[in-house]
Specification:
Elements: H1 7-18, H2 33-50, E1 84-87, H3 97-112, E2 119-123, H4 125-128, H5 131-140, E3 145-150, H6 155-160, H7 186-204, E4 210-212, H8 218-228, E5 232-234, H9 253-256
Parallel strand pairs: 1-2, 2-3, 3-4, 4-5
């Protein structure tokens, strides 16, 4: 990709190649070698847009690139671009999904590492407790990378918190009242946070500094900020039928607690 190609075109091509509109649920599914190529092209476009190594919490195991505060190429400084990689352990929409998603994550690291751009790798709980991901991130990430929390709620986390799994017969359910925190009572939300944070600290030796989700509630964020020191949160402001999922409007909860929020897809 040449520097003259607009960054929006790179993201658009990537989304069209990776997306599977026939599937329900949030997140783009891994695609062909073309998706891998477009992913790298989009990274290069982001780097050109920023004109400096990308700063910050950084696109997803499903090759989703997110730009925060996107600006035109001729906008004034500062230019802040975020690469954000969320990691799920499995996906019922894919055959052999654990291998597919693990290899996708490994290849994303290989693609991003030579650029020396900071990136965030946000772990859903089922990936957090998988020793393969623990080993991969500990051995392959550099000092410019961040390991964060991805706040979709798989069966393993729900059951370890002593709650009943209400989803379908898979470890991850994309329904809003099952796979996301607003579907649980306030005390249940705090339990889910406590279980996740305890295991994260046992594995990595510290608590994550940021959390991401398609949407998240104020009780969860308040608990994460007050008890565990979360300083940043990202969410999807708007998407209309991108992959069968529609979200409209930005939540005010993150700003309410004085933390950074609102990564726009």
């Amino acid at each position: 990709m040449t520097s003259g190609v607009p960054w929006r075109r790179a993201f658009g091509e990537l989304s069209r190649a990776a997306g599977c509109p026939r599937h329900r649920g949030p997140g783009l599914l891994p695609g062909s070698k073309r998706v891998r190529s477009l992913f790298l092209n989009a990274i290069l476009a982001v780097r050109h847009l920023a004109r400096v190594p990308a700063a910050a919490v950084g696109g997803g195991v499903f090759a989703l690139l997110l730009a925060c505060g996107a600006v035109a190429a001729d906008a004034v400084q500062p230019r802040i671009v975020n690469l954000y990689n969320f990691i799920r352990n499995s996906d019922s929409r894919l055959q052999n999904s654990e291998e597919v998603l693990f290899n996708a994550t490994r290849q994303q690291i290989e693609l991003i590492k030579p650029t020396h751009m900071p990136a965030t790798w946000a772990l859903q709980y089922d990936a957090l407790i998988n020793p393969r991901y623990q080993k991969l991130l500990k051995e392959q990430l550099g000092p410019q990378d961040e390991i964060a929390a991805w706040w979709e709620l798989p069966r393993q986390l729900v059951q370890k918190a002593g709650l009943k799994w209400r989803g379908h017969d898979h470890d991850w359910d994309w329904a809003a009242n099952i796979g996301f925190s607003p579907g649980y009572a306030p005390d249940e939300r705090r339990k889910l946070v406590d279980v996740y944070m305890a295991d994260f600290k046992e594995i990595f030796g510290y608590y994550p500094k940021s959390v991401g989700s398609w949407f998240i509630d104020e009780v969860t964020l308040e608990h994460m900020v007050g008890k565990y020191g979360i300083v940043a949160s990202c969410n999807c402001k708007d998407q209309v039928g991108t992959d069968g999922y529609t979200l409209i409007g930005e939540t005010r909860t993150a700003r309410q607690f004085g933390i950074t929020a609102g990564i726009t897809a």
